[in-house]
Design goal:
With 367 residues, the chain is α+β, with helices and mostly antiparallel strands. The chain contains 15 helices and 15 strands. The strands form three sheets. Strands 8, 9, 10, 11, 12, 13, 14 and 15 form an eight-stranded mixed sheet that branches. Strands 3-5-4-6-7 form a five-stranded mixed β-barrel.
Length: 367
């Protein structure tokens, strides 16, 4: 909990009048940077400036500024996430601290709270949209497997004392978030020598007892238009002039796989041209709409989109969990769901996934 904090709605009122930050600054006699700071909660305007803002925005001062409620939460912000006032966020408690992750702006995911003020670069005050007691039951799971969304819904539907939120992200980012204490669970998939993940996890978490829990096995490969009209088969085909490749972020399992393919083709330093995709599903969407000619993703998304698929490798997708979190509470509920008959029945009807080892646990002792 925090002491009352000043919350402002300057941005929403400015957008209502279709004013730019520069235009509003000109109207009230301050710089654009000052407006940016006020809207982001990093600057508190003096009384005179507050009155000028209210006049320019055709509203009362009390409509622009108010004190936070007693339920406001002081939360750490996930890296790479803007924390300006008004941001919709998913919220959970990790290691005794509140954590906030910004949600997509399209409104497809229900928010747990709204950022009301930036406190520091990596922390903010969040106004919860539900009882904080319920947010303490929220398991934050980062990973790129689309079935994590289904798993999260199953947790919330099966248990009254647990819920889960899927935060899409590549393997590298997910492990970074777990290491920083910003999620409870990280999903990871790697190819080649790191495929069992044990060595990587021992290196990243040497002082902790960790669990590696299998979620599924899958094939990863080239996602191409139906019938593969360009005949994409290997890494050398990605070097064709004019080819548009759906790129993934550095650190993602798909990115590492492509790096290996290019190295095998003698072009390890090559930079492929094309749009960037935020995950497996987006790779398929880019290929399906013709924005990209090819991308690397899992077989399941290619099948679901009616696209062609050229297999390159088989992989495990594992959940990485600190053992201290897995024994009880909401995280334990999420792991229990892997053995839920309804979940397993549904998974059996999702194409492209092998769940024979789902729920299998490997324990790594602290070094």
């Amino acid at each position: 909990m925090t002491n009352p904090t000043l919350i402002n709605d300057v941005r929403s009122h400015r957008k209502r009048l279709r004013l730019s930050q520069q235009e509003l600054g000109d109207l009230v006699g301050v710089s654009r940077q000052a407006i940016v700071g006020i809207e982001g909660g990093r600057q508190i305007p003096a009384t005179t400036l507050s009155l000028r803002l209210a006049q320019a925005l055709r509203c009362g001062v009390d409509e622009l500024f108010r004190l936070s409620t007693s339920t406001a939460l002081s939360a750490r912000l996930a890296p790479g996430v803007a924390g300006d006032a008004g941001a919709r966020v998913a919220v959970g408690e990790v290691g005794g601290s509140w954590v906030a992750h910004r949600l997509p702006a399209d409104g497809t995911v229900t928010a747990d709270g709204i950022v009301s003020a930036r406190v520091r670069e990596r922390s903010a005050v969040v106004e919860p949209l539900t009882d904080p007691g319920l947010l303490r039951r929220n398991v934050l799971v980062s990973g790129c497997a689309p079935i994590l969304g289904m798993l999260a819904q199953r947790v919330g539907g099966r248990f009254a004392d647990a819920r889960a939120t899927w935060l899409p992200g590549g393997s590298g980012r997910s492990l970074d978030l777990l290491e920083a204490g910003l999620v409870h669970v990280a999903g990871v998939h790697l190819s080649g020598a790191e495929a069992d993940h044990s060595s990587l996890i021992r290196t990243r978490f040497p002082g902790q007892r960790m669990l590696i829990v299998n979620l599924a096995r899958w094939r990863e490969g080239f996602v191409v238009p139906a019938a593969n009209p360009l005949g994409i088969r290997g890494g050398e085909d990605l070097l064709r002039p004019g080819l548009r490749f759906a790129r993934r972020e550095e650190g993602a399992g798909a990115h590492r796989l492509v790096e290996g393919l290019l190295a095998g083709a003698g072009a390890g330093s090559a930079r492929l041209a094309g749009p960037e995709a935020g995950g497996h599903v987006e790779v398929a969407q880019l290929v399906r709409c013709g924005t990209a000619d090819v991308g690397v993703a899992i077989e399941g998304v290619a099948l679901a989109a009616g696209l062609g698929f050229v297999p390159l490798t088989e992989e495990r997708f594992d959940l990485v969990v600190p053992a201290a979190l897995a024994g009880s509470g909401p995280v334990a509920r999420l792991l229990e769901t892997l053995d839920d008959p309804s979940y397993r029945t549904e998974m059996a009807h999702v194409p492209g996934y092998d769940t024979d080892l789902s729920g299998h646990v490997t324990t790594l002792e602290a070094a």
